[in-house]
Design goal:
Blueprint (H helix, E strand, L loop, with lengths): L13 H6 L1 E4 L18 E5 L6 H6 L11 E5 L4 H5 L2 E5 L6 E6 L5 H5 L11 E6 L9 E13 L11 E5 L44 E10 L8 H4 L7 E6 L1 H4 L2 E13 L16 E5 L12 E3 L8 E2 L13 E4 L2 E4 L1
Parallel strand pairs: 2-3
Antiparallel strand pairs: 1-11, 1-13, 3-6, 4-5, 5-11, 6-10, 7-9, 7-11, 8-10, 9-12, 14-15, 15-16
């Protein structure tokens, strides 16, 4: 039977997770699951350059931010509406519900999954999703978490529909961006049997799995000193961080990317650059059905000091009752199912 190359999931110990205290600093503007169907991604600014200029990152505020504190910019683009028209909140029903969709012009996702959208893009797409500088702490470790799924007309293990995802500082320094795990292909979202082998149809084609979602978590240091500037100067500047997603035209035009969740966290007490938290060296990745998110939107402190050690947990530290395929922690040890 066919085998497919999968992204490696890296597990981290329960002890490390139990010591971490997270403060949610995600702008409410990115709470797409509670927005009206058809709502476009609010892309506030376009930049013809490959990266949004770092001075813009430092000067964000006022009219550049939407009401709930979010700001998304487009790169290699002259008009933000060119990108926004390819996005929309759609309702996938069931346990999935509403998600933000980036919809390629020739994607068959609507016919296959039974939703309707006018979102359409037939070009490359690169966007930067910013934290809010007003509540982005400096000289500390921050965490980004994104939960997504990719549909493609033709499933492949190497199509790189998301060619790279970057966790970046305010001056466009790529923080841990060159991990091989950042190349996300449609082949990561296929059905598997109980033995962990890909399920294929009568013609040996892989079968898309609507319920297989990737949770991608990575940490990075948000510094306050930048080249050409004294630290005393930059400590008074509101400096956000950003999550950049690069989607080449070749893969995107025949695909749909679904983003269920994007979260930004400050890791409380992680103020030592030389003492990285659990997700700093490599992104931590897990696959499986969506789980209930009990984290309120907005600023909230989450403590996990009482995390039990018995039972089965995913890589985010959440208890799993009915495990599907993926990497899990069982009694403190990594298990691949």
């Amino acid at each position: 039977m066919k085998k497919i190359l999968l992204i490696t999931a890296v597990a981290f110990g329960m002890n490390a997770m139990a010591q971490e205290v997270l403060t949610d600093i995600t702008p409410k503007a990115y709470d797409w699951a509670h927005q009206e169907v058809g709502t476009r991604m609010n892309i506030c600014h376009a930049d013809a350059l490959w990266n949004t200029d770092f001075t813009f990152s430092w000067q964000l505020g006022g009219s550049e931010y939407v009401e709930d504190g979010g700001c998304i910019t487009a790169n290699a683009c002259s008009d933000p509406n060119d990108y926004a028209k390819g996005t929309a909140v759609v309702d996938l029903g069931g346990d999935i519900g509403k998600v933000m969709a980036i919809n390629g012009a020739h994607s068959n996702a609507q016919e296959v999954l039974g939703f309707t959208t006018e979102a359409s893009i037939d070009d490359k797409m690169q966007i930067c999703i910013f934290t809010n500088p007003d509540n982005t702490p400096k000289d500390t470790w921050l965490r980004c978490k994104i939960v997504l799924n990719i549909f493609s007309n033709q499933i492949s293990s190497s199509d790189g529909i998301i060619n790279n995802m970057y966790w970046m500082s305010g001056d466009n320094d790529n923080l841990g961006s060159w991990f091989t795990e950042n190349l996300i292909s449609s082949g990561n979202f296929i059905q598997y049997d109980e033995e962990g082998d890909p399920i294929t149809d009568d013609e040996e084609n892989y079968i898309y799995d609507q319920n297989r979602w990737m949770t991608f978590v990575v940490d990075a240091w948000n510094r306050s000193d930048y080249a050409g500037y004294e630290k005393e100067e930059t400590t008074s500047i509101d400096i956000p961080m950003k999550w950049k997603i690069w989607m080449p035209q070749a893969g995107l035009v025949n695909s749909t990317i679904f983003i269920k969740e994007i979260k930004f966290y400050a890791i409380e007490g992680a103020n030592d650059k030389d003492t990285p938290p659990s997700c700093a060296d490599h992104p931590h990745i897990s696959f499986g059905p969506l789980e209930a998110d009990t984290t309120p939107t907005g600023i909230e402190t989450l403590t996990t000091n009482d995390q039990p050690t018995e039972g089965m947990f995913n890589l985010a530290g959440q208890r799993v009752e009915n495990a599907q395929h993926g990497v899990f922690i069982v009694n403190g040890k990594k298990v691949i199912r």
